[in-house]
Specification:
With 126 residues, the chain is mainly α. 75% of the residues lie in helices and 0% in strands. The protein is flat, with a radius of gyration of 15 Å.
Length: 126
């Protein structure tokens, strides 16, 4: 079953909201779950942390066991975007290849990539 980009982002957002509500009552190792790791990576990104540190945080999401691959697909997508932001187009292309190969079941997320690429190109030109 294919998940749209919007549905994937909404699923991650809903899971993160549930995680925030449950963290007061959760065991300390819940931070190592895929939703917890996504939350930490997004927090690091929003605090304008070092891009390489944020990429490593998203890689931890991919490495974490999860019943729902949407977290790993989202993390891989964010890694591609971060390499573009960093200006490392070769690594961004390689990571985009991994996104297409490893997460082909998230085709709508992958097809969203050209729109992102177009915006990045417009920023660098304009």
């Amino acid at each position: 079953m294919r998940t749209t980009y919007v549905a994937a982002v909404l699923a991650v957002t809903a899971s993160l909201a549930a995680l925030v509500v449950s963290t007061s009552f959760a065991a300390p190792d819940n931070a190592q779950t895929a939703p917890g790791l996504v939350s930490r990576a997004m927090a690091a990104e929003s605090m304008r942390s070092n891009v390489d540190d944020v990429i490593q945080a998203y890689r931890a999401v991919i490495a974490a066991p999860a019943n729902d691959r949407v977290y790993a697909a989202y993390a891989q997508f964010r890694i591609v975007q971060l390499y573009f932001r960093k200006g490392d187009l070769v690594r961004a292309a390689a990571e985009a290849g991994k996104l297409a190969q490893d997460y082909a079941d998230y085709a709508d997320l992958i097809t969203h990539f050209p729109h992102f690429l177009g915006r990045m190109c417009m920023r660098s030109v304009g």
